[in-house]
């Protein structure tokens, strides 16, 4: 297995770090704008204020190279989460609730300049144990697709990559 992009930092908390091509405003747009976010994660409007509603509308088949949902992932590729923004520092930090995979879950995205690049750090808190490998794989693949889009290369296939990385994270845990 390659060095993991996502690590378990404590029970129920995973952390991803990925260096992306900048500038930071461009990466921020891919986090906050539905049309851009839909290309790597999920569509849905964000009311960009603390306490604002953040909607994540999943349809993995619409991701670049998303393809059909494999039978073992049936029911996991489409859906909607209604979230609430819990922290907002434009172009630096965005956090929102995550009402699935555990009680009172929260995801925080942090952006930090690294020369012409941007370090994206995602921390997903309060995950139920059984979801950890799948969520680790999900963040790995979704952020990898974002990296591919920002680099202007063909995005990696979602389901094929997710199945492989989920097995790798499960084995490592």
End-to-end CA span: 13 Å
Question: Can you summarize the main beta sheet?
Answer: 7 strands, antiparallel
H/E series, N to C?
A: EEHHEEEEEHH
| Helix proportion range | 25-40%
Alpha-beta content class: alpha+beta
What shape does the CA trace take? globular
Question: Strand share of the residues?
Answer: 25-35%
CATH class: Alpha Beta
Which residues sit in consecutive blocks of at least 5 with pLDDT less than 50? none
List keywords for this structure.
single chain, 173 residues, alpha+beta, Alpha-D-Glucose-1,6-Bisphosphate, Chain A, domain 4, 7-stranded antiparallel beta sheet, 4 helices
If you had to describe this structure to a student in words, what would you say it looks like?
- With 173 residues, this protein is α+β, with helices and mostly antiparallel strands.
- The chain has a single domain (6-172), classed as START domain (Alpha-D-Glucose-1,6-Bisphosphate, Chain A, domain 4).
- 28% of the residues lie in helices and 34% in strands.
- Strands 1-2-7-6-5-4-3 form a seven-stranded antiparallel sheet, covered by helices on one side.
- A hairpin with a 3-residue loop joins strand 4 (78-89) and strand 5.
- Helix 3 (132-151) packs across helix 4.
Summarize the structure.
By secondary structure, this protein is an alpha+beta fold. It has helices at 24-32, 34-37, 132-151, 158-172; strands at residues 6-10, 13-21, 53-59, 78-89, 93-98, 105-114, 117-125. It starts with 5 loop residues before the first strand and ends with a helix.
